[in-house]
Amino acid sequence: TAIDLAKKLKPDLALMDIKLKGDMTGIEAAAAIKEHVDIPIIFLTANADPATLNRAKITEPHGYILKPFKDIDIHTTIEMAMHKHGKEKQMRDENEWLKSLGEYKASAKHFFVKQKQGQIRLNLEDVVMVEALKDYVTIHTMSDAYKIHSTMKEIEKKLANQDLMRVHRSTIVNLNYVKALKGGDLIMEKAEHQVAVGGSYRQALSERINLL
């Protein structure tokens, strides 16, 4: 069968006639092949009615060639299909790699944040504070601020470090950058930023700092 051949030969591409001899249509064969082999599929068909095309779309083919066709039609469609499939595979591989980078690693001393210019590396020790607003958080260093889509719970886990401490439901601070205490607030070194300490966090904070 076409499926067995694809699994055995592992071709770079499949040209599939929608009408096949036997019980299985080309559309069904294409769907089965894609479950086992990651290759682009191009359909050959003399029937371009909407119902047939809609059934074929489910298999996400990389092209159609209508009968009767010329050699240039096959050459052009194959070239475009191979290019598109290559780009798709590259994007999938990159997404998987970025996903692995985003997984929590307790021993890491740095992390990456996504910005317009790409993935920017930050050291944990350079984080002054983190502020949350709805589904976004802003990571502050002494020189910059980085806004990313995340929750405070996720950030608290990923930035686990003995110097970083949550002092409010929407704020994490680096204790090394606390310049002064003012009433119930912390004064941070960055632009004299004043941070309120939440009531439920005060006891834990008092156990981390020394007063003379």
Output the structural class: alpha+beta
| C-alpha end-to-end distance | 82 Å
Per DSSP, what share of the residues sits in E-state strands of 2 or more residues? 25-35%
Shape: rod-shaped
The main sheet comes to: 5 strands, antiparallel
Strand order of the largest sheet: 8-7-6-10-9
Radius of gyration: 28 Å
DSSP helical segment count: 6
Mean pLDDT: 87
Q: What is the H/E order?
A: HEHEHEHEEEEEHEEEEEH
- In helices, the fraction of residues equals 25-40%
Low-confidence stretches: none
What is the β-strand count?
Answer: 13
Structure description:
The protein is an alpha+beta fold. It has 6 helices and 13 strands. Helix 1 runs parallel beside helix 2. It starts with a helix and ends in a 6-residue tail after the last helix. The model has no long low-confidence stretch (mean pLDDT 87).
Explain briefly what this protein structure is.
This protein is of the alpha+beta class.
Which SSEs are present, and which pair or pack?
Elements: H1 2-9, E1 14-17, H2 26-36, E2 41-45, H3 50-57, E3 63-66, H4 71-102, E4 110-115, E5 118-123, E6 129-133, E7 136-140, E8 145-149, H5 152-158, E9 164-168, E10 171-174, E11 178-182, E12 185-188, E13 194-196, H6 202-206
Parallel strand pairs: 1-2, 2-3
Antiparallel strand pairs: 4-5, 6-7, 6-10, 7-8, 9-10, 11-12, 12-13
Helix pairs in contact: 1-2
